[in-house]
Amino acid sequence: MPDFPFIKYHPKVFDKEQMAARAQEYYQYMNDRRTVREFSDKTFDIKILEQCILTANTAPSGANKQPWVFCIVSNKEIKKKIREAAEKEEFDNYHIRMSKEWLQDLAPLGTDEHKEFLEKAPYLIVVFRKSYDIIHGEKRKNYYVQESVGLACGFLIAALHQCGLVCLTHTPSPMNFLQEILQRPENEKPFLLIPIGYPAEYVMVPDIQRKKLDEICVRFD
Question: 182: domain CATH number?
Answer without folding.
Answer: 3.40.109.10
